[in-house]
Amino acid sequence: MTPAGTAIPKTKGRRLAAALLPLLLAACQTQPEVEARPAMWLVEDADTHIYMLGTMHALPAGTDWDRGKVADAIGAADELMLELSPRELAAAGEIFRELAPRSAPLAMKARLSGPALAGYRAIEGDGDFGGDTLDDWAVLVQMGQRVAQRAELSPADGVEAGLTAAFQKAGKPISGLESARTQLMLFETLDPATQRALLVQAAENAAHAQSDVLAMTAAWSRGDADALAKVVNEDVDKVPAARKAIITDRNGRWTAWVKRRMDRPGTVLMAVGAGHLVGDDGVPAMLAAEGYRVVRAQ
């Protein structure tokens, strides 16, 4: 990552659902103010400056993330680049409803057994989200949604929502790196075995899903890029086809966009899921490998 909008958007598959798909989440209860200083990088030349901010799409209410160097970047930027533009985000729910259903229902007990089925039922709880009628990837999305709801994370308090409001108020343009359909098709087109592996992995580890999501949010709040990279790598490395489609290939396309944008003057704030900016195949690392000077700005 749909009740509140969609993006696609980790621990053992459950983090993948919660971290890559969190814009699917519904608003939740408020929490005390939390100070966050997320990691941000800068690539620049004489007349072009591109800040790359790692985001959490859904956060506890009251999270204070837009001060310090991030505030400076927001003020300096001429434009905002997100994974999905506001227009695409608004269209995502309808596209999810189009793509998510199976061609024929398949009971969850026919897909999962033992601890995996028990874990799925525990996340589903009393509110049936129609898993029998959905593709495996869409069930994974619904599971991530339910976990984040219970963790009291809300997309209304996420970084993208805050940035969108700030740039709209300032009259600055907002664009997107992908369309909603393209983003959701990353999951829809995963082969059935990969979809099932992600679903089983998430369901088997359901007991720890909520605490893992909160731990990942805490690492993001500290700006701990190494901890985030470890979380991302330990999960999706277990399902290489998913890692390639959902992380590595997208990072390569986004790196290519940054390179093209460097040919034009101006200042851009690029804000994408934090998992895309960390590790050896994160966008900053890819840019550095091609000879660009990338520095940690916060």
How would you describe what is shown here?
The protein has 298 residues and is of the alpha/beta class. The chain has one domain (14-296). The chain is built from 13 helices and eight strands. It has a six-stranded mixed sheet with strand order 6-5-7-3-2-8, with helices on both faces. α1 (14-20) crosses α9 (192-204) and α5 packs across α9. The longest helix has 22 residues, at 240-261. The chain is globular, with a radius of gyration of 18 Å. The model is unreliable at 1-31 (pLDDT under 50).
List keywords for this structure.
single chain; 298 residues; alpha/beta; six-stranded mixed β-sheet; two-stranded parallel sheet; 13 helices; 50% helix
